[in-house]
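Take a specimen:
=====
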Amino acid sequence: MSKVKTRFAPSPTGRMHVGNLRTALYAYLIAKHEGGTFMLRIEDTDQERYVDGAVDIIYRTLKETGLVHDEGPDRDGGVGPYVQSERQAAGIYMKYAKELVEKGEAYYCFCSKERLESLRQTVAGKEIIVYDKHCLHLSKEEVEAKIAAGEPWVIRQNVPREGTTKFEDEIYGTIEVPNEELDDMILIKSDGFPTYNFANVVDDHLMGITHVVRGNEYLSSAPKYNRLYNAFGWEVPVYIHCPLITDENHQKLSKRSGHSSFEDLVEQGFVTEAIVNYVALLGWSPAENREIFSLPELVEAFDYRHISKSPAVFDIQKLRWMNGEYIKAMDFAPYYERVLPVLQSVIKKPLNMEKIAEMVKTRIEIFPDAAEMVDFFEKLPDYDVSLYRNKKWKTDPEKSLQVLEDLLPRFREQEDFSNDALYEVLKAYAEEKGLKAGFVIWPVRIAVSGKQVTPAGATEIMEVLGKEESLERISRGIEMLKES
């Protein structure tokens, strides 16, 4: 076979669904793994679903995810145009549709909507229109007369009613379908635009696509695609149909889930690299037992033969875990840029935000997690004195009161309010009293944070809060314990 060439051919209908992103990723990985070409084609033949700005979303998503195309509307590789509406305007699809008509593989159809509705029937619980080839036997003269009279028309594929059509898929194997189950699908619509299915076949051939990657919802269309390839005498590409992506309830992943698009996930605080890594594993299993892959590592490891037939479950908790691993590994500067707006949403005081950011870096899974972890820096929350009780350190409100009362004057005298210096104060007190460090630190941390779980230790928190605020909070703790 010639050099591998894949394509990502999205329709500009809004945000990029996770399923579309996976198709783009797999097409990219297959091409790059073989040293081939990855092409972008914009499929805008469905003018009713076209959304302004959606083409920009496609470009932006590919750029942000690192799935850089070698050819496309902005990178001419000699087989353009790369936008289907421009190809339609150039008359490409009509030329090939008429060629099929000449061969008897397609025909003009003038049936009205009313007539088509009368053909509606229920098959396997679904209402569908099964076309009855009513217009197939019109003579050439009759067809020309109807067109000249301005009657609306479409061009349909002529599928024989007897025999079978089979095709090979790399994931699902050989699939054979009785021809009587295949309808005479429309190739050219009444507005002159090609249907998705027809434009795909023509474009993939003319653009030299060797491997077609798409969702398994297109499996049922594949026999009709093959009939078109054979009618033209063209080589059939390698088909790779990917499994369905479902939510945790095993329903098709939809917008209602709240995390069905790439932009949804970015807005929710996920890192682009983690999204790409996770999406790669939705239906593909690496040969080695690992889960964290950079994009170059995916290119190296990706073998499409390891794609599964079984539906892939989009597990948001698994993605959160993976995202946390990526945040831990991030360089501080880009991490700080992402987390700072979250910190500033809950902390208005002029505190050392870099130190606070460092505290949560290894503790958050997505950036918004940071808000709830650090909000106590802005204002001491209302808390219950039962927090001073801790089994591990064998302490309780009464013992905690004693510790805080002993330490308050020492903190007042302390001029160096850095983390290390404050820790030495606690350590010296613990040694002097013959106590464990944890027994001493626990009540101090509760007093300065008002929380059972904090992203840092007592003295790290005090360093950021500063002397005045720390003393005020410890005094407040003493008051609360005395009142309880």
